[in-house]
């Protein structure tokens, strides 16, 4: 039976008419990240895997929101019409891994050659400083969206470039520096982003 894609193009199964493989060897499929998922979605899925395997307990921090006005068009539904942030959020994720406190932020950029430091806020960096000063493991997970590449970047290295920009330094970190100082995280099936492999290098 002929199998076709929705656009009408024939699907090549790799088998001939006798159902024998036409390829001389099996080619491992290439993983292309979460196929449209945001970095946050990829990390949430990864954390669910770590939790299910009792490897780590790491969760997305809830955003503190104060609801001001709610409309009730009917008894079974409610629509939030007005709300505001009760306080500035810190980092995106925290939890425990191998008995150590983990705290990190996830950032995406469409820039191919550098990471703009404007992606961070002062209070986020200061929060990480306090965590590091108290023995926590802090870092940023940076995704270059167009290139579909993910890196773990240590908080201590982030602090260096953050402070340097306030003293006449550049407002971004070159990608080749992130490649040199950071840890590249290759996509996998489970977990989607195995970032704890890189964390092992920090412990």
Round the Cα radius of gyration to an integer and report it.
22 Å
Low-confidence stretches: 1-35
- Strand arrangement across the biggest beta sheet: 1-4-5-7-8-10
Task: Give the number of DSSP strands.
Answer: 10
Percent helix: 25-40%
Oligomeric state of shown chains: single chain
What does it look like?
This protein is of the alpha+beta class. The chain has helices at residues 39-52, 122-133, 155-165, 175-181, 196-202, and strands at 57-60, 65-74, 77-85, 93-97, 100-109, 114-116, 137-144, 149-154, 172-174, 183-185. Strands 1-4-5-7-8-10 form a 6-stranded mixed sheet, with helices on both faces. Strand 2 (65-74) and strand 3 (77-85) form a beta hairpin. Helix 2 packs across helix 3.
Structure summary:
The protein contains five helices and ten strands, in the order H-E-E-E-E-E-E-H-E-E-H-E-H-E-H.
Features:
two-stranded antiparallel sheet, cytoplasm, 6-stranded mixed β-sheet, 30% strand, DNA damage, single chain, alpha+beta, 203 residues, hydrolase, 10 strands, magnesium, disordered N terminus, Restrct_endonuc-II-like
Secondary structure elements and their pairing?
Elements: H1 39-52, E1 57-60, E2 65-74, E3 77-85, E4 93-97, E5 100-109, E6 114-116, H2 122-133, E7 137-144, E8 149-154, H3 155-165, E9 172-174, H4 175-181, E10 183-185, H5 196-202
Parallel strand pairs: 5-7
Antiparallel strand pairs: 1-4, 2-3, 4-5, 6-9, 7-8, 8-10
Helix pairs in contact: 2-3
